[in-house]
Design brief:
This protein has 402 residues and is of the alpha+beta class. The protein has ten helices and nine strands. Helix 3 crosses helix 6 and helix 7 runs antiparallel to helix 8. The longest helix is centred in the middle third of the chain and has 35 residues. The protein binds 3-thiaglutaryl-CoA and flavin-adenine dinucleotide.
């Protein structure tokens, strides 16, 4: 976490999103304005630095305040707790799309803060907790993280070992969490742990509490501009007022994941669009055999298939967003969208990389970074296969997890 000098790229970010089926007609003017302002923000604040940050494995901590200013944290939280809030789920999705178009790690920062930290405090917290934490998280004064996964319990979080005991005046928390986005810099952590009866509860743990540490995980080849760490609890005395009072059981973290996975479905679409847009431009400009490579049928096939998958994914996102707005989106519907959109994005990144030939593997273009990032996106918030099993369960009524 040392200071690193980041070189700004002077290459213009010319990104334009495809809209082959006029899906913009389904958006409100407010949606389009929000998307335009996030796109401009990404071009100004993220695109110039992101490649160097990723190359140097550096999390640009200053972006947290900037995300707060633009309203990217918890936009669906009511304005009473978030002055930039009160927006609908399509607006939230479009924000995640635009941010991940810039970088999946940047979207991670925003979606963890909004869906996995602010959402549980808003949905399951006391009025005092909402007032104490939400405005600071919304503005970016605080950075938050979400601790569910443990070293030995990833896909199967209900087996978690992290636990707390009621000591009368406080809860005594012990255990550890693994692979936690934002954790080394986080001011607050929403931590899921079992009580003496083995029931899962959420606790708000603050930086500086004795016995609490958050070491960084080094050596990632993916999400290099996002910071990931552990959470270690050794006899941490958590004040009783830090327990989220209005939820218990695995359903608590799972409801948070429903929101975050929804945002990832849009985010992955953003990464796919960036790869497509980059490859399309390159195919028109790059000359081989005296012609633009875009004139060859094999290159056109790649571009046509990318656009087809992006268009289908856009429709999935829009429809899922309308269901979310009506409070009707199910966990399985969200799994379908997360699973499909991450898969198409990773495939599009791979095809786009081929269109760029050797240039595709360099940091001159964003494709290899997206491609590596998407490997994490395929795994976190439920792996590709876990989402398939969630769908299988929904179709047959038979769980195949165990
Ligand atoms: P199962 O027996 O199915 O359910 C146990 C209890 O949980 C309830 N439940 C839900 N409630 C509300 N909404 C949901 N979506 C729910 N899903 C489950 C269920 O009703 C039951 O309640 P109760 O009261 O009867 O106990 O659970 P299982 O143990 O068989 O596991 C099911 C499974 C595999 C689907 C689930 O555990 C799962 O999704 N695993 C994947 C884990 C995961 O996604 N981890 C993500 C960690 S966070 C993260 O990755 C952040 S990355 C962020 C970034 O950087 O962007
Ligand atoms: P495992 O659960 O060990 O799975 C390994 C393989 O086994 C996978 O292919 C999986 O699909 C397969 N598998 C497991 N069970 C089954 C089954 N029943 N049937 C078929 N196949 C199965 N977690 C947090 O709590 N908070 C965070 O902020 C967070 N951020 C992350 C950031 C990054 C960069 C990464 C990589 C992970 C992050 N995670 C976070 C953790 C993430 O959610 C887990 O990695 C993920 O849930 C998978 O758990 P695991 O890595 O332990 O893999």
């Amino acid at each position: 976490m040392q200071d690193i000098e980041i070189q700004k790229s002077h290459k213009a970010d010319l990104f334009e999103s495809p809209d082959f089926y006029s899906i913009d007609d389904l958006l409100t003017e407010e949606h389009k304005l929000i998307r335009a302002s996030l796109r401009e923000f990404v071009k100004r604040e993220i695109s110039p630095i992101i490649e160097d940050c990723a190359q140097k494995c550096h999390f640009p901590r200053h972006i947290v305040r900037k995300f707060g200013e633009i309203g990217a944290f918890g936009p669906t939280v009511p304005q009473e707790y978030n002055p930039n809030g009160g927006l609908d789920y399509i607006a939230y999705g479009l924000m995640m799309q635009e941010i991940e178009r810039g970088d999946s790690g940047m979207r991670s920062t925003a979606s963890v803060q909004g869906s996995l930290v602010m959402y549980p405090i808003y949905a399951f917290g006391s009025e005092e907790q909402r007032k104490k934490y939400l405005p600071k998280l919304a503005s970016g004064e605080y950075l938050g993280c979400f601790g569910l996964t443990e070293p030995n319990f990833g896909s199967n979080p209900s087996g978690m070992l992290t636990h707390f005991e009621d000591k009368g005046d406080y809860y005594l928390l012990n255990g550890s969490k693994m692979w936690i986005s934002n954790s080394p810099y986080a001011d607050v952590a929403v931590v899921w742990a079992k009580n003496e009866q083995g029931r899962i509860h959420g606790l708000i743990v603050e930086k500086g509490m004795e016995g609490f540490s958050a070491p960084e995980i080094h050596g990632k080849w993916s999400l290099r501009a996002s910071i990931t760490g552990e959470l270690v609890f050794q006899d941490v005395k958590v004040p009783k007022e830090n327990l989220l009072p209005n939820i218990s059981g695995l359903g608590g973290p799972m409801k948070c994941l429903d929101n975050a996975r929804y945002g990832i479905a849009w985010g992955a679409l953003g990464a796919a669009m960036d790869c497509y847009d980059t490859a399309k431009r390159y195919a028109i400009e790059r000359i081989q055999f005296d012609k633009p490579i875009g004139s060859f049928q094999l290159v056109q096939k790649k571009l046509a298939e990318m656009l087809t998958e992006i268009t289908k994914a856009q429709l999935v996102c829009w429809r899922l967003g309308t269901l979310k707005n009506e409070g009707k989106a199910t966990t399985a519907q969200i799994s379908l969208a997360k699973r499909n959109n991450v898969e198409i994005a990773i495939n599009i990144a791979r095809e786009a990389r081929q269109i760029l030939g050797g240039m595709g593997i360099t940091g001159e273009y964003p494709i290899m970074r997206h491609s590596m990032n998407l490997e994490s996106v395929l795994t976190y918030e439920g792996t590709h296969d876990i989402h398939l099993l969630i769908l299988g369960h929904d179709i047959t009524g038979i769980p195949a997890f165990k």
